């Protein structure tokens, strides 16, 4: 066991006026299975890159360990898998690799196939096996579950549970719960570490937030009461001062009031009131610093259009082909108005192809396919690599209201500064939010979402869950986050 010490870490990207980290200090035990979570754009990947020594920073990072980052960069995916393994790690025994592959439920024959012919899940598992063959390294594992099916996530979670000495970036709640023993969280104003899994951290965070919100509410009530008291005191003082200068009515002698006494008493009461108010305001300011850490998310909205018919899509014994290869066979299901359908299956089972057929792509198929007339469909692709240019141009080209588009992104924790950046510079999670925000702006009868939650932070996932449950649009989606899928779907179609 050893400790990684981070002390007074301060970092900002060149040209940026805002620090991503400012005087951050904490310790990490190299034996921990450390989950790493936080809103998109808060600096999770940046922090991993700082550990890797990729950027200049102020402060100190020490610990005497070598860091290793996942996923590896694969320059030529056409090579045989075994050649890619050897290029990444020369110092291993074949039996060690076979042991790790067995734990990850990967057959040995994939080693002698082209890496590009493997499914996304197989590629991830092979590279994880290579990663854990490296000795005396502290591992930085960045979003390993993207494109992994539900079964693959369970296998990888069980595999990581048997290991230690890593930081794991993930937004899949169940996955984190199944394989970590500590949580590193980037909050709005600080970084904190807690022992336990994600669910225990989330419960503690909610309790802390609710406690601080309640205290703040009471404090604000106290301030309001003091302000009212101060106002009454001020009005009393003014009346006394006014009375001192007036003569009595009916020709009587001037009011026999000691002006100095009244003035001094009023001033004393005002000073006391102001001192109390100042102390309370100071306390409020201190509490406000804590409140800045509270993750409050505004509700999202969607306005699906009403379709004229109950039946919208119907697949009856559909088989789709790419060339001569059959992608899937005899798929049958119906989408009716109000359905929220989760499309499930292993990687490579044809889920995305089913969605492409629904979208109207020209695919070779046999069977009976029906799609209602004049149907408006909103689509969220699993791919984000095409996003580039200005946000305003993207909104215009998409034919959506830019003001509404920006408002939705603000609710999903986009800063106003982010709007001026090129889309290509966005994080993976921010790019997915752009696609989801566009979909929410589109008036559609049917929403088709293909792995919408890849890279998206937990709070935003909860926002989207609440949105879909409240407005209940007709939707078919592919998503391997089982918590999300089980929460949203009222029908499940398995391929």
What do these coordinates show?
- The chain has a six-stranded mixed beta sheet with strand order 5-6-7-3-8-9, sandwiched between helices.
- The protein contains 14 helices and 17 strands.
- The chain has three domains: 3-187, Rossmann fold (3-Layer(aba) Sandwich); 205-291; 311-494, P-loop containing nucleotide triphosphate hydrolases (Rossmann fold, 3-Layer(aba) Sandwich), CATH 3.40.50.300.
- The radius of gyration is 30 Å and the shape is globular.
- It is of the alpha/beta class.
- Mean pLDDT is 87; it is low at 247-254.
Tell me the layout of helices and strands.
Blueprint: E1 3-11, E2 21-29, E3 33-38, H1 44-51, E4 58-62, E5 66-70, H2 81-88, H3 94-103, H4 120-131, E6 137-142, H5 150-161, E7 166-169, H6 173-179, E8 182-186, E9 191-195, H7 198-244, H8 259-291, E10 311-322, E11 325-336, E12 340-344, H9 351-359, E13 364-371, E14 377-380, H10 391-398, H11 402-411, H12 428-441, E15 446-450, H13 458-471, E16 475-478, H14 482-488, E17 491-494
Parallel strand pairs: 3-7, 3-8, 5-6, 6-7, 12-16, 12-17, 14-15, 15-16
Antiparallel strand pairs: 1-2, 1-4, 8-9, 10-11, 10-13
Helix pairs in contact: 5-6, 7-8, 11-12
């Amino acid at each position: 066991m050893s400790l990684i010490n981070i002390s007074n870490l301060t970092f900002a990207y060149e040209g940026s006026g805002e620090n991503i980290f400012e005087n951050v200090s904490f310790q990490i035990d190299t034996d921990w299975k450390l989950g790493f979570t936080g809103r998109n754009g808060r600096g999770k990947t940046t922090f991993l890159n700082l550990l890797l020594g990729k950027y200049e920073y102020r402060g100190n990072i020490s610990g005497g360990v070598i860091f290793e980052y996942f996923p590896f960069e694969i320059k030529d995916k056409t090579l045989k898998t075994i050649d890619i393994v050897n290029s990444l790690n020369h110092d291993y025994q074949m039996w060690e690799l076979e042991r790790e592959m067995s734990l990850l439920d990967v057959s040995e024959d994939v080693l002698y196939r082209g890496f590009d012919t493997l499914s996304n899940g197989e590629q991830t598992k092979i590279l994880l096996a290579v990663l854990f063959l490296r000795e005396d390294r502290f591992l930085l594992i960045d979003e390993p579950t993207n494109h992994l099916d539900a079964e693959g996530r369970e296998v990888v979670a069980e595999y990581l549970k048997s290991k230690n000495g890593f930081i794991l970036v993930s937004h899949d709640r169940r996955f984190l719960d199944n394989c970590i023993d500590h949580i590193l969280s980037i909050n709005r104003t600080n970084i904190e570490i807690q022992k336990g899994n994600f669910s225990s951290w989330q419960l503690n965070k909610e309790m802390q937030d609710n406690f601080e919100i309640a205290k703040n509410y009471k404090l604000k009530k106290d301030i309001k009461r003091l302000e009212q008291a101060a106002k009454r005191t001020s009005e009393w003082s003014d009346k006394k001062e006014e009375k001192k200068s007036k003569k009595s009515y009916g020709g009587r002698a001037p009011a026999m009031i000691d002006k100095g006494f009244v003035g001094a008493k009023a001033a004393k009461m005002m000073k006391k009131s102001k001192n109390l108010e100042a102390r309370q305001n100071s306390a409020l300011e201190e509490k406000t610093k804590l409140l800045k850490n509270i993750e409050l998310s505004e509700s999202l909205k969607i306005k699906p259009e009403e379709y004229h018919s109950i039946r919208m899509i119907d697949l009856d014994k559909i088989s789709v082909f790419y060339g001569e290869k059959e992608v899937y066979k005899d798929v049958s299901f119906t989408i009716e108005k109000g359905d929220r359908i989760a499309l499930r299956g292993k990687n490579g089972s044809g889920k995305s192809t089913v969605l492409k057929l629904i979208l109207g792509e020209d695919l070779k198929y046999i069977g009976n396919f029906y799609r209602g007339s004049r149907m408006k469909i909103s689509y969220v692709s699993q791919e984000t690599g095409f996003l580039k240019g200005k946000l305003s141009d993207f909104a215009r080209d998409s034919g959506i209201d830019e003001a509404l588009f920006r408002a939705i992104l603000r609710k999903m924790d986009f800063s106003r500064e982010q709007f001026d950046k090129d889309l290509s510079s966005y994080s993976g999670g921010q790019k997915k939010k752009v696609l989801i925000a566009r979909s929410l702006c589109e008036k559609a009868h049917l929403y088709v979402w293909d792995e919408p939650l890849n890279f998206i932070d937990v709070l935003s996932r909860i926002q989207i869950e609440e949105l879909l449950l409240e407005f209940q649009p007709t939707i078919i989606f592919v998503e391997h986050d089982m918590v999300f899928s089980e929460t949203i779907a009222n029908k499940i179609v398995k391929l």
